[in-house]
Request: fold
Amino acid sequence: MHWAGRLDTLGTEQAYLVLAAARRLEAAGHKVVHLEIGEPDMPTPPHVVEAGVRALRDGLTRYALAAGVPELRDAIARSLAARGVRAGPENVIVTPGAKPMLFCAALALIERGDEVLTPDPGFPIYESVARFAGGRPVYYPLDETRAFAPRVEAIAERITPRTRLLILNLPHNPTGGVAEPQDLARLAELARRHDLWVISDEVYGQIRYDGSRDSIAALPGMAERTVIVDGFSKGYSMTGWRLGYGIMPARLAEPMTTLVINNVSCTATFVQHAGLAALTGSQEPVTRMVSGLRAKRDLLVRGLNAIDGVSCATPVGAFYCFPDIGGALERTGLSCESFAERLLAEQHVAVLAGTAFGPGGTGHLRLCYATEPAELERALAGIRAFVHALAPVSA
Ligand code: PLP
Reply:
């Protein structure tokens, strides 16, 4: 029996493969430091859990409206003011996570043969869904010398008459990079001039260490050509609840709702009520998490920069750092993939090779620092020991 060829175009996330390898080590009795999976380490805030449980007890267990529970759509629309975006509930569609919205947006916007500008390194699902939708991903590089801000010139150079869509992810996975306001304005100008759609993945928007909150959709003429992809997984530590949303022009929201009806029907009703509590309740747990993450970021970046052959930019957002280990690799002749594999096998530290995020990740690792400081110290000790034990390549 054959299945449809389009399945062969799908890529995946290496994080799940490395997690499986780490779990095998744990099953064999080893203690593993997990820096591979990207999720916050704080529990879901108790008032959010309570709202979800209350909704279940109150019988909110039936189908919701396809585009989302009206109160939640309303609260999401109001919450956008924090990033300067004016939206009403007619612009909001709720989905079970940000990923399904990304998938829907790709299917809704990409025609066969369209070129889709995607960051390299970048979240591997962009390339995967762009291909699945019939498009051709075109990588654009980031500027490591400016903590991985997008390089506007490099994006401009890659625009052709076939370019249809620019994917932005700010703050960025895997580097934690953000865009300066002037870069965002120049990107908006490019999108307007070349009549591009923009998918702006803002799932890490609440996790910024410079106190800023922005969105390209807030800039003149951009709300009508932007789909913001966002969700509750990262900012509210709700990865397992599966709750996300898209913000888009109302005229696109209508066919997009039909796509959602064909796909998931709706998002779990009680989960949406938990999300409503997250948005409308105290934001103190988020603030506390971000200040804890800042200390963890500083600990890890300092420790990495003290290792011979490793250099790490200080990320401005998200909870990842993306050290350049080129110096260590050069001395030993290893690739970043074999470095990551052996680091797990020999020191029981699980990280991702930079190339899990595209060819632009060559010579790098991605480490998620949303874990206990003691675990970060163990990871640093493991990386240090691993680098020191590596035999230099003979000249
Ligand atoms: N976008 C980016 C950049 C991510 O890193 C992730 C999760 O790792 C997602 C989207 C998916 O988020 P969700 O859990 O809401 O589907």
